[in-house]
Amino acid sequence: MNTRVLIVDDSATMRAILSRLLGSEPDIEVIGAAKDAMEARGMIRELNPDVVTLDIEMPGMNGLDFLEKIMQLRPMPVVVVSGITRKGADTTIRALELGAVDCYAKPDGSVNALLENDGGTLAEMVREAARVRFVRVASKPSAPVSPVAQQTIVASRSASAITKLIAIGASTGGVEALHHLLPAFPKSCPPTIIVQHISAAFAPAMAERLDKQCNATVKLIESGEVLKPGHIYIAPGNDKHAVIGGGTDTIIVKMIEGDKVSGHRPSIDAMFESVAQKLGPAAIGILLTGMGQDGARGLLAMRRAGGRTIAQDEATSTVYGMPRAAADLGAAENILPLPRIAERALSAAGL
């Protein structure tokens, strides 16, 4: 059965381009194209598409408000089509937090450049989006740790706490999951490293938004930097692997060249395996929602090295692909709903 797609974009030219990119695929059918939110609402009711592509930067409408209403009243897979300007990146990350499945970056340049450089990317996003089912974890992200609890945590840290590390991998639905998970980390949390499958164009905006929401400092990884408590480091999605190393007293992270691992670069497996090798039982691994199997093998390596391992459960995963693969391998010591993961991970870290 073909995947039925509705395109929403104020530009007639862009509607034609997206229709051409998707309509040329034998398993995808473009069933309509709307120029604004009002027209899109009627077409959604009438046509019941499998996937919607949505330009959230359309003038004359608030795309985020429209997306939020879709997710509240009639949840369905939405692929955001966005420019890579600063404003476009910020808006896209907010859309992913609201429940958009993926983000397609419109490159700057001519129409021909877009057609020539797509390489099937949009069609693959649509195929993956069509496999998504929607869950509602909570109306708000996890509450930050209270000042009193924060003081208790700081006082209880041992001198050797720097050797603890939390490693997190996520893909489809991961931005929304991180938006719920990370605000529960205290200001004094162990150094935390994250590989989220996301375009490099949107990674800086994701890190900045999370930094505003979290007690800990959230930033993009700078290759060669020493990892410190109270910091959460996100791989920049720059087509390099994020791996850890260092001597006996420090943990450093590097961005390195290399072939794709488990179909990705940066790869969660590559990161988890380096953590297993460097830290063994001093690490905690968390594998969140996502398509495919990246991270399952690496999480198993962490568990075999004595680390504590957690996978998100099916009920709260947007896509139960990567966590399922980890569960099938016996890589996850704990399989938990998203609201319980932070508490378990912090407890395993001695907090």
UniProtKB/TrEMBL annotation:
The keyword Cell membrane does not apply. Keywords: Chemotaxis, Cytoplasm, Hydrolase, Phosphoprotein. Its main location: cytoplasm. The active site is at S171, H197, D294. Its EC number is 3.1.1.61, 3.5.1.44. The keyword Cytoplasm applies. It catalyses: L-glutaminyl-[protein] + H2O = L-glutamyl-[protein] + NH4(+); [protein]-L-glutamate 5-O-methyl ester + H2O = L-glutamyl-[protein] + methanol + H(+). The modification 4-aspartylphosphate is found at D55. Residues 4-121 form the Response regulatory domain. It is found in: Cytoplasm. GO terms for molecular function: phosphorelay response regulator activity; protein-glutamate methylesterase activity; protein-glutamine glutaminase activity. It holds the Pfam family Response_reg. One of its GO terms (cellular component) is cytoplasm. SMART domains: REC. One of its GO terms (biological process) is chemotaxis. Contains a C-terminal catalytic domain, and an N-terminal region which modulates catalytic activity. Involved in chemotaxis. Part of a chemotaxis signal transduction system that modulates chemotaxis in response to various stimuli. Catalyzes the demethylation of specific methylglutamate residues introduced into the chemoreceptors (methyl-accepting chemotaxis proteins or MCP) by CheR. Also mediates the irreversible deamidation of specific glutamine residues to glutamic acid. Belongs to the CheB family. This is Protein-glutamate methylesterase/protein-glutamine glutaminase. It comes from Sphingobium fluviale.
